Amino acid sequence: MDVRSFTIRLHFSAYYTDTLSAKFLNQHRIITEVFSMNPCELTASITAVANSLACKLSNEELTLLASVLVQLGDTLITIATQRAICENPNKS
User: Fold this and answer.
1) Measured over all CA atoms, what is the biggest interatomic distance in the chain, rounded to whole angstroms?
2) Is the alpha carbon torsion for 17, 23, 26, 31 positive or negative?
3) pTM surpassing 0.85?
4) What DSSP string describes the chain?
């Protein structure tokens, strides 16, 4: 499968693509919603998204998406750690 094919299939429906695009345009609202969730709501929401994606994607696509999201999480943690170190250079 080529990258273009994966990208097209990743946007598995116009509804989800439009909904995600609209939400990303209003990032502050999303962050506020995530932080206001209790831990059970947050994990239930993540599970629902994972199950929805698993129903729509092939095993190959699902594996690639999981790898991409792991890398995204690792990169975000690296950025946050670097920011913390730069903000407090004398704390060690």
Assistant:
1) 50
2) negative
3) no
4) --HHHHHHHHS--HHHHHHHHHHHHTHHHHHHHHHHS-HHHHHHHHHHHHHHHHHHS-HHHHHHHHHHHHHHHHHHHHHHHHHHHHH-TT--
For the four alpha carbons of 61, 13, 42 and 84, in that order, the dihedral sign comes to positive
Asked if residue 37 lies in contact with residue 29, where contact means CB atoms within 8 angstroms, the answer is: no
Please compute the mean of the pLDDT values over residues 68-86 and round it to a whole number. 94
Q: CB atoms < 10 A from the CB of 45, how many? A: 13
Q: Are 23 and 34 in contact (CB under 8 A)?
A: no
Is residue 62 within 8 Å of 53, Cβ to Cβ? yes
